[in-house]
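Table 4 source record.
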Amino acid sequence: MIETLIEFSRYWFALLFGAAVAVSFAGMVRTRKNYLAFGCFTVVLFIVQLVCLRIWGMDMTIKIYPLLSHLPVAIFIIVYLKRPWLISVTSVFVSFLCCQPPRWIGSVAGAAFDSASINHVSYIAAVFLMYYFLQKYVVKSVRHLMERSVKSCLLFGAMPAFYYLFDYTATVYTDFMYSGTRAAVQFMPFVTSAFYFVFVLLYYAETQKQASIQRERDMLDTQFRQAQTEFASLRQMQQNAVAYRHDMRHHFALLQGLASEERIEEIKEYLRTAQSDMDAITPMRFCENETVNLILSAFASKAKQSEILLTVEAKLPDSLQFSDTELCSLLSNALENSIHACENIADSNERYIKLRVYSKNNKLCIDIRNSYQTEPIFHQGIPVSKEQGHGFGTKSMAHIVEKHGGVCQFSVKDGWFIFQATT
């Protein structure tokens, strides 16, 4: 009677352990509601297994065990926890792999004492230790690997999935593993080593790809912050111009005093200085949109300093769907790239930038083209730079346009590098 109770206790803890590890890997939140649902679910599964054991016996129950336990757990994760099917299936396969150390410990202890009950008791004790170890050191890492990307999940789950299929094929549905042949004995070590090296190679490539994506994301974030800083500077310039205009009465008072004393040369010098100061801080006006005026005014000055002929045709309303920082980042990157390309042209008379920006059917349309010295290189439709730290501006531009459901194109035609966007 006691031996039977111990044996059934092992079956219960095996089911509970495997299911608990699977839902932990899948990311079940530790709440009272989830614990209650999971507890009821495992009790129902255990009752169904006992019924099947009573009707069909142990051999048939073991053969259909995947349908009685593993498949329902996967469905529970998909339906109740609302996790993707790939993560659900992978969690079940990995949890099956985690069941092997307790099983081996039980077998060793049972063989040492020549007792089936010792086997079962050792298995139960090992289950508790294994569950503690997994929760403390493994679950978080496994969850991160599975959720990182689909490819990462497939790579991680390949070995557990193969072992699962091999175990049932070679030990449950056939006696291949216990046949004693040399091929059977060496098969799993061969497959394990092969999977290990394939996993290392493929996972290294995947981590490098993810690291590259993260670096690009960091660079785009940096560019966006720079756009915010630049736009704040432009706003400050506008405020300075307002303050300067506010102080005009003081300038007039001073000029009136100089005129009353007929100090003409001093008046002329003062006017030249005042004009220069006003030109330095007063943005040029291109359209109704103040943000665009500030940006174009700043880059018009930069183009002039680099001896570049910049022609602008801007017809925009006061408000657009873009935020000020997004608009600043988009136009600033486009104009900065154009100025950088023109600066490489030796003959200053060949440096041209033409910008058309307008609104059509409530959409922002941009057409900017510049002359260039070196033919640009394209990768997947986006120009790339060989210079270290460059090339992220075009990606940032494309990202902003696509974020608002627009389309953009980079091209070269008749000696012009052209960027066109509609969003």
